Amino acid sequence: MFFGKNTSQILFLYFRISDYNLISAEYLWDHAMIRGFLQKKGIESTQYIQSQLPSIYELTEEIVFSGVQQLIIGVDQNNLWCSKLVTREIRRIDATIEILWLTASADIQEEEGIQIVALDYADCLGKIQAWISGSVRGSANNEKCDISVNPYSDGLIPSDKAITVGLRLSTGCPTEYSLERELVFLNTENLNGIIPVLDESQYMQDSLVDELCKLKVNLNLKYTFRVHVRSEQLDEAQLQRLVAAGIKDIVIEQDMETLNLKEMLKRYKAWEEIHNIRIRLKTFYPVSADIMDEWIEIEQGVQVHEQAIVNGYLSFVTGLYPPGFINGSVKHIGITESALYDLDYHKHLKEFVGLNYSFIIDNSDKFSKQPERVSEIHARDSIWRNNLSLFGEVKDLLGHSQNVLPHLILEEMSEDEFKYELNIDDFYRKEKLQIVKIPYASDSDLNIASYSCQYKVLLIDSSEDLSAFLRDVECLNQSGEINHSYQIPSLLAESCRWSGGNCKLCQMPRFHTDGSGQVKPCGGSSKGAGSVNEGYAAILQNVGAAAEEEQLIRQCNGCEVEAQCSKCTFLPDFMSREQYCATQKNHKSISRYISVTSVLQMLSRSSRLLSGVEASQIKISSNQSVHYYDGDVACYNSIHVPAQHFFLISIQKQPYLYDALKHKMLKVNEPLAVIFEAFLKGINEKELSDYLQTHYEINDVQAEMLVEEAVQSFVRLGCMPQSVINKKILVEGEHVAG
Question: pLDDT tens, 319-351?
Fold first, then answer.
């Protein structure tokens, strides 16, 4: 997406590498200041914005074919590798595009044919203007100008981006900049949250801190700030000023060569407890894990900076990907250790992946047998990282051949045959994140109950596993009850195989591969779709042709379960296509089972509703099993059919209506639950009204009003379309006319 005038031939580009190692093309406050200056000089420009980045090839083609003639890339130590790749690829496609690197780092080495301008507001504005106009390279304009630039209030950055982009207190820029004007504007935009202050700690003088604290109080700002200070700069007096102004998110840039480090850490701990603040450390020197373990808390589950990568890993395991997550490139590759170190192999993979992909080494026992790698850690951007991680080792190796490694997840086998430890990127943890994988046919209730791991996965790798799975499916279908406690917390590996129309094969967000280069799109299947040497486009054609051929052989078109079958092309090795088709036809509620258990898993992770609840205390309503409506079914002629993404769930006899599309849970009363179940059974309004009169001992007018109010509630919630009310009016009108 291009933010600015589409006709502009000048493009600004900045790759933001988040604390979580996620890459996006984002706004940069310094770019906005420069673009504002150029705009006042009559020079229009555009900022490239994209949160879901495609492959390098697609990205560079989009930029080149947009008509850009001059490209300004913001380069820092974090995004240098990415900036280099894009620069070289753009120059390969179109050497006439002029490229300038804008950087605040003195360590950035010049690329051949690329001009580098230091991000120093004292003279960079003049240099950039001269470069754009084609004047003598390196000329500058140091004079003070009367141009006023304010990135947010001037509309150069959307106000809601301030929480991630941040702002500066002081620029040293020859243009006019009003911090107060920016803060007032953001306050009127009803902004809430924490805005990062971008000024580096060495420039955060006491006067700037005092000004920020004063403005925070005087302007009655609804938001607050995250500030950086040097360890030797922060004393009790300055801390008191920050706390008094409501600034309680402080990054201390710590010189790790300090001799009394342990004492300083104890002081920071005391400050956090006394003042109820958050102190983050940013270190410049690695230190031993033994020292820092006194500061780092034991992790409780998945940490914030790990969550997005873990979510992606779980999609890789289950095959279920959110619609907006797939954007025309492979997201996850299951790879062997031998292939991971093969540089020739990576040259072919570059065509398959976007900038935010992950390698997953699954079921690995190689590295777990090596000596402990962690000996020193550091905090870059307040995230603790292992300097000696496998991630860093492989990333450096691939960097020499212009290949990238955004993310690496290593599954290390433990002494327990079912338990694995996850190592994510270079993130350091005091306690490893663990996952359990258990065959479905094993004594899963007993096995899973003995593990305290946050993620548990059930595997269907044999006919016995499939039979055990189908028993649980039929129990839910016929009784509306959860058969075993393990069904609630456990994910199902390769859920996509059974989840209805959720197969993403032809978009290929994932695949497994080994040293032979074979692409195996689906877990549990040794069937390949070709070799990585064939290229991404050829593999997509291969999987499309394979899917079409399988559906012709199975005669899927017009099949009785066509709508709810996933039509899995690459079946597990133990299963024939005849067995798969028979399973889908004989157990038509499989896809609904996947939906229901997914809802319960979501609730168990994100809500307290299921806390302490036994599996036997949960009931799920369907047209086969109801728990509130106990009337007869005379005929199936109701016009009120609840939408399939709505579920009536009873938890400890309290009914809830759950909207799976909006992820909303609504507590409802018993009459509404009765009416919902009656409509699930196909009861018409006349039969339902008669039943309600007897069941609740009310008259016909009260019963009809109860049904009418329920229908209106269902329509309002999106559980039923508005047309059911219109159709009811039409039917009643025809009846009266007759």
Answer: 998 877 777 789 999 998 878 888 888 888 888
Domain harbouring 119, CATH code: 3.40.50.2300
The whole-chain average pLDDT of the chain stands at 84
Q: Are residues 625 and 559 in the same domain?
A: no
176 - beta bridge partners? 148
Q: Is residue 107 included in any domain, yes or no?
A: yes
Range of the domain at 577: 304-376+384-590
Same domain, 574 and 632: no
The single-letter code of the amino acid at 352 is F
| 728: helix, strand or coil | helix
Residues 542 and 629 in one domain: no
Domain termination residue (choose one: 159, 177, 211): 159
State which residues of the chain have pLDDT below 70. Answer: 1-7, 122, 135-146, 172-175, 201-205, 255-259, 284, 298-300, 363-382, 388, 400-402, 443-449, 502, 633-638, 724-738
Answer whether 340's CB lies under 8 Å from 361's CB. yes
CA dihedral sign of residues 396, 428, 314, 410: positive
pTM of the predicted protein model: 0.84
How many Cβ atoms from other residues are within 10 Å of residue 114's Cβ?
A: 18
Give the N- to C-terminal CA distance of the chain in Å, as an integer.
60
Same domain as 680, residue 559: no
214: number of Cβ within 10 Å: 12
In a domain, 652, yes or no: yes
Report the C-alpha gap between 451 and 448 in whole angstroms.
5
**Residue 709: alpha-carbon gap to chain centroid:** 39
Domain end point (choices 159, 186, 205): 159
Same domain, 569 and 661: no
The CA distance from 283 to 253, in Å, is 6
Q: Do 568 and 695 fall into the same domain?
A: no
Q: Read off the pLDDT of residues 71-115 as tens digits, 9 standing for 90 and up.
A: 999 999 888 888 988 998 999 999 999 999 999 887 787 777 788
Which residues touch 286 (CB under 8 Å, ≥6 apart)? 256, 376, 377, 378, 387
CB 551 within 8 A of CB 537: no
Residue 666, both tokens: 């609504």
Q: What is the per-residue DSSP string for 603-614?
A: HHHH-STTTT--
Residue 692: phi and psi, rounded to 5, are -65, -35
Contact 372, 324 (CB under 8 A): no
How many domains would you assign to the chain? 3
Q: Nearest 5°: phi and psi at 475?
A: -60, -45
Cα(457)–Cα(437) distance, rounded to whole angstroms? 5
Distances, alpha carbon 474 to alpha carbons 313, 483, 583, 623, in Å: 29, 9, 12, 14
Is residue 196 in some structural domain? no
Rg (CA), the chain: 30
Considering the domain boundaries, does residue 261 fall inside one?
A: no
Q: Give 290-324 pLDDT, tens digit per residue.
A: 777 777 776 667 888 888 899 999 999 999 988 77
Shared domain check, 698 and 579: no
Q: Are residues 401 and 528 in the same domain?
A: yes
What are the residues facing 667 on neighbouring strands? 656
